[in-house]
Design goal:
single chain; 14 helices; 10-stranded antiparallel barrel; about 40% helix; alpha+beta; disordered C terminus
Length: about 425
């Protein structure tokens, strides 16, 4: 596809009923069989697990049916979800207790689109156990450690805990320090220090881990960037990413001195193969800010960067962000691969303030712009198949690299609830 060969359609061109009419897939073939097979004799330890399975578990089955996973892989993934993930979701309806999304529910779904092939299903979780938030596990560290240990026993291809052990030693906050921290800032409840992410792809599950930096910074008295530099220096013989990390942090300290890296993530694989991602959040919403972020203040340039800026400006216009400021902050990450001197940049655009009617049109226009015609034409049917609410979407994120465009769409994690997503306060 020529990079600027597609015209962006105005939002009032046609109706969403027209979008996808030509290539609407039959999305109900497989999931009914798989779902009924798994649910017929399912046994759960408590009523909350049964409700989670009938709500978000059913939604997971629909997500999996959209991917290229065959029926055998779908059975395997659903068994993993039922046995490992569902018990870690806690009470139903869920409690507001997690920083990982706007609803404060401790998990979220996304679909990752790369070209015309079927998307990859992804799942982030802030797991809950009986000791979560108690004096025994105020920061949910032991609960996450237990889940990581269980994942190691399952034996996913390439799974490795080396970086889990390293970064948790470097950043986890002792229990007594957490109590002092809460008292100092007047925070009524503890938030998890770390969460997990899972990508379901090619019959395997790739696990990622995220850590927030502020707790360790408070305990040590050091700036988050100093902690990141120190932690990376101690494992750089394997990750080979310190040059790019220093480039990113130098830019942040020059252009965004008041915006430290909020959290970072890595893959639970051999350190020599793991990516490192540094996440930043700001309330500054402007196209100039997006351009600055994506060029490291002018340090990044070349054909890929130029194409990235051009496409992101088109997406900015599709989302009408010059006249509409989202309620959620602007978020981005710098993804650093082993041996690379510069990062790839991923930008996150909140779409939770729009109706699904508007978002479906915008997402379809974006996919059409990229030349993903069938994905664009079928997106509305995909959305209707997944959720019956009017506010299913949360974020849309984009990375442009030499390999092409990578787009993820994030969704609320309850499938059967009303538009307030049945959230309870603790």
């Amino acid at each position: 596809m020529a990079k600027d060969s597609i015209t962006v359609f105005p939002r009032n061109t046609g109706t969403t009923e027209d979008i996808g009419a030509q290539f609407a897939p039959d999305l109900n073939k497989t999931d009914t069989t798989v779902w009924k097979s798994f649910s017929k004799y399912a046994c759960f330890d408590c009523e909350a697990q049964r409700q989670w399975w009938n709500d978000s578990g059913a939604l997971i089955a629909r997500f999996l049916n959209l991917t290229n996973a065959d029926i055998h892989e779908q059975y395997q993934y659903l068994l993993f979800m039922r046995e490992v993930i569902i018990p870690a979701l806690g009470p139903y309806p869920p409690l507001r207790r997690s920083r990982m999304n706007a609803t404060e529910i401790g998990f979220e779904f996304s679909l990752n689109f790369q070209g015309a092939e079927k998307p990859v299903f992804r799942f982030n979780i802030d797991p809950i156990s009986k000791i979560t938030g108690t004096h025994m596990d105020p920061l949910n560290i032991d609960t996450v450690n237990s889940m990581v240990a269980r994942l190691a026993v399952i034996g996913f291809k390439g799974f490795d805990r080396t970086l889990h052990h390293h970064f948790t030693r470097e950043f986890f906050m002792p229990e007594q320090s957490m109590k002092t921290h809460q008292q100092d800032i007047g925070e009524a409840k503890a938030w998890s220090q770390t969460i997990l992410g899972l990508d379901f792809k090619d019959g395997n599950v790739v696990v990622k881990q995220y850590i927030w930096t502020r707790y360790a910074a408070h305990t040590s008295g050091l700036h988050p960037h100093a902690l990141i530099r120190r932690a990376i220096s101690r494992v750089d013989d394997q990750m080979r990413c310190s040059a790019a990390v220093n480039t990113v942090l130098d830019y942040m300290e020059t252009y965004n001195a008041d915006l430290p890296v909020k959290f970072f993530s890595w893959d639970l694989v051999d350190p020599s193969k793991s990516r490192l991602k540094l996440y930043v959040i700001t309330r500054q919403w402007s196209w100039d800010k997006v351009r600055e972020v994506c060029t490291l203040g002018g340090k990044l340039h070349g054909p890929v960067t130029d194409r990235s800026i051009g496409l992101l400006k088109r997406l900015w216009d599709i989302l009408e962000l010059d006249r509409f400021t989202p309620s959620m902050p602007f978020t981005w990450n710098y993804e650093i691969r082993p041996g690379r001197n510069y990062p790839d940049v991923r930008t996150y655009f909140p779409i939770c303030d729009r109706s699904d009617e508007e978002v479906a049109q915008a997402v379809s226009q974006w996919f059409e712009l990229l030349g993903w015609h069938e994905t664009a034409s079928s997106y509305l049917d995909t959305l209707r198949y997944l959720q019956n609410t009017k506010t299913a979407h949360t974020w849309l994120s984009v990375t442009v690299t030499e390999k092409g465009v990578n787009t993820s769409v994030y969704y609320h994690s309850l499938g059967n609830g009303p538009d307030n997503h049945m959230i309870s306060k603790p």
